[in-house]
């Protein structure tokens, strides 16, 4: 059985904004959410900036008691807040219907890193008897899915995905499959990440994966530009409500977009560097197109993984050219990470919401900071300014450490 799957709700928590309309307006205006980090003292760090969610209070976004919030790691709080927004925008009443047909699937690349660091300090400063009894349920990667399930009483399929920076896109794709094959009618899905911590920031910096433009943070994330020097760490969540088409119609839901296909693959070459020829990425794109029953010429816009790394941007460009052939030059391709940074395992969730908004408003968002396209990065990356255009179908790319590749195709409906 193969059933149609649609999007009926969206929610985001990002450094740019924590409300989808405001977030979309700022994306289209080419605003940046990158700035100097304020949550902890990083004056001695090699990198001192990122896409930090400032002044965040989970209780302002979802009806959780303040006491209960303390039992949730920051990445879970982001997920709960974004889920609350997505559920509210969907108009879904989970108290009605069969709870065993409602499920959750949320990804995270790292999980509760903040809790790990705090409890590690407690262990060595105060001893093992002072470690929090809530540590394990706070830091688990599946804590986001579990808490969303408990809060809304969702008893259908419940899982979590940890495929590094492909986590959210894999989560949405897997949720799509569950509905498509009649394992659920509604899935709350996406990704969440809160890795801007002393350990997270220093770890990625020591890999030389991050930009070091401490003097101009807003211009540090520059996908496809010849002066790019690494990605910019960010945090937040992107959660959506997927629903079986007839189920959504029956309850009179506003249908925002349709998910047509899903592809995934592995590079199988290196733990952190992409395949230089982009073969794994290209295979995932081709599989998503085939799963959708589409030809390359049917895609109008690609929301790229586009991390602003020297190797990644070139590999993705080459993969697009290989898969799309002559049509590649007619595609609009852009990277939202130029504005909000790289949310690691949550990036695909937030960028999926961008794709939905692009279909609704018929606008391709810009790639900001693209002043001098690098040699080998020769596509139309929608530089600097958003573009009004006809967009019927979108391909969303996400690639992660470990060689994980995940792609989704969305359609206007």
What tags apply to this protein structure?
13 helices; 413 residues; two-stranded antiparallel ribbon; alpha/beta; 10-stranded mixed β-sheet
Explain what you see.
This protein is an alpha/beta fold and about 425 residues long. The chain has 13 helices and 14 strands. It is globular. The model has no long low-confidence stretch (mean pLDDT about 95).
Task: Summarize the structure in short.
This protein has 413 residues and is an alpha/beta fold. The chain contains 13 helices and 14 strands. The radius of gyration is 20 Å and the shape is globular.
Low-confidence stretches: none
The helix-strand sequence is EHEEHHEHHHEHEHEHEHEHEHHEEEE
Quote the average pLDDT: 97
Shape: globular
The helix/strand class is: alpha/beta
The number of helical runs is 13
Outline the biggest β-sheet.
Answer: 10 strands, mixed
Strand order of the largest sheet: 5-4-6-7-1-8-14-13-9-10
Helix content: 25-40%
Q: How many strands? A: 14
Q: Span between N and C termini?
A: 21 Å
Tell me the strand percentage band.
Answer: 15-25%
* Integer-rounded radius of gyration: 20 Å
Oligomer: single chain
